Amino acid sequence: MKKQSFLFLIGGILSLIIAMGIGRFAYTPILPLMQKDLSFSNTVAGYIASSNYAGYLLGAILAGAIPLKKYRVISLRISLMISILTTALMGLTYSNLLWYVLRFLSGVSSAFVLVLASGIVLDKLAAISKTSWSGLLYGGVGLGIFLSSLIIPNLNQWIGLAIVSGVLAFFVWIWFDETSNVVEMKNKQEIFAQVPPTKWLIWLIIAYGLEGLGYIITGTFIVSIAEKTSSFHKGATLVWMMVGLAAIPSCLIWSLLAKKWGYVKSLVLAMALQSLGIAMPAFWISKTSFIISALLFGATFMGITTLATTLGRQMNPSNSSRTIGILTAIYAIGQLIGPILAGVLSLFTHNFNTALIGASSIVLIGAGMLLNGIQFERKSKGILISK
């Protein structure tokens, strides 16, 4: 990979660190600290989380619907600035209403960054025949999670994260110039088609929506759940650190597995493993179980996003941003519903066990819905398409 392409990829990774790993997911390890200092309920915590996912849903819809192909870089820059600003302001207010607004705007910006950075970088990687490197791009989310878990105990939480994000954004601004949006596709004589037909996309969309609904319970409350057990009186942030560590290499690993096994089969396996990880703390409460759960969750949640968005792009390469936008939108609908349901269930059951078991079942159902796509990969393997 040439130096320019390498810096281009790094810029995409930094974008996801800022808007996703920090701007979107930092709420999870900060939540128990906020609840301890400000004493608000799990229901309120669920509403704060869902306001972010509501914004994420709107951002995904807009990013997929608005024709931004000529303005992807400037739109990405603006979205990053909004993400950083809303992160900083979270540490300067104690109003529930303002938290809802700030997390909503943060959700809008993070969706734009994910859709735009994915579209720009995946198109670039496809042009230089490095599609399998998409795993490195999405590894940025894991890096952001790991980075935030290190920063939160030592700096002023939201404000400290915003400062770090601002420094990283400087490099994105340099490496993502206006010429980055111009992608020249090399002429390929042969391409091996190993993905289902476009009509199968509806199965992927539904399954990805169920994934969004199921995974977000753990993605929002795992640190808070661990904090309330006898296994973690302090230092539950360690659980989130394990999530980040497992997520960093996971996207590349799943991309390589998909190249060998096929994207659909890899998605089914990843979702099945995640289902196991989500349910584990409901049946086995110990420090070991939380760490295993965190590792399984971290090893799969962004890997699933990598597989689903890359597969969606390959099924509809002529309009990658729109396809990724649709997938991100259905995912966001699930995310919007999940924390509210979990918060309400915990209010009645006084724990998160029911929510975790339900979330695990939903993800497993989604994995089952993808099984009929494996046949297309088998049939299409070895078929050549001329270009």
TrEMBL record:
CDD domains attached to this UniProt entry: MFS_YjiJ
UniProt key word Membrane: yes
PROSITE patterns associated with the record: MFS
Location of the Major facilitator superfamily (MFS) profile domain: 7-378
Main location (coarse class): membrane
Gene3D superfamilies listed in its UniProt record: MFS general substrate transporter like domains
Topology within the bilayer: Multi-pass membrane protein
Protein name: YbfB/YjiJ family MFS transporter
Organism: Neobacillus pocheonensis
